[in-house]
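Researcher: Let's try something more involved. This one mixes different molecule types, so please make sure each is placed in the same coordinate frame as the others.
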Amino acid sequence: MSLRTPLGQVRGLGAAKDGTQHWWLQRLTAIALVPLTIWFVISLLQVFGMSRPQVAQWIRSPSTAAPMALFLVAAFWHLKLGLQVVIEDYVHHEGWKFGLIVAMNLLVVAFAGTGLISIFLLAMRS
Amino acid sequence: MAQPTARNRPLSPHLQVYRPQITSVLSILHRIAGVALGLGAIWLVAWLYLAAKGGASFDTLRAFNSSWLGVLLLLGFAFALYYHLCNGLRHLAWDAGYGFDLKTTTLSGWTVVIAAVVLTVLSAVAAFATSGMFR
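Model: All components are placed in one shared frame. Result:
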């Protein structure tokens, strides 16, 4: 006989109230970030010190704008998942933990969104 | 009824009594590098934002990037990125079930450290030699 409620048995998520999705997404974004990071490092080494028109010229190409946007999405997603675990590990007060995770999620989305819109504007303007 | 948790039992782990080991040091370094890269990501977004915004603010950031503090931070972020990338691959190998015995773990750990240092030095050399960086 199981002590779990029927609903808990159906969900099958256990005491953590969450399945393997967090773990799996962290690995998925990690795998995506391997080629994207190699592209990012090689590209940035060439353009990081350049002037604004040169940077704009570089980002205007879809072969730059697309991987850069993908890199931002994968990196910030991976960051969100990682920071959540860090907060869960070190912040023991339930209220603070909840508040920090909410704030962290909002900040990550804000920065990722700002980065994506900046890439878009740089790519669209000539 | 007696409270089962009333006794003050010792809590584990006592991190301070352990001698630092390659496995534990690299584990926490992976996390520290990850958090540091979060700040690096904000720097990257600032760079993209100011490039899109235009004006003198981009040149201010560009000047900071080539200052001694900027270069020092860039080297730090480069090392954090290379270390997190290499050690991340080590983690993915573990997830796939490989490299768990102590000898392999120690070897892969030192390989990751050396690879991260070498890649950081190579990047610094490449940045000085090519591109418009630090000019």
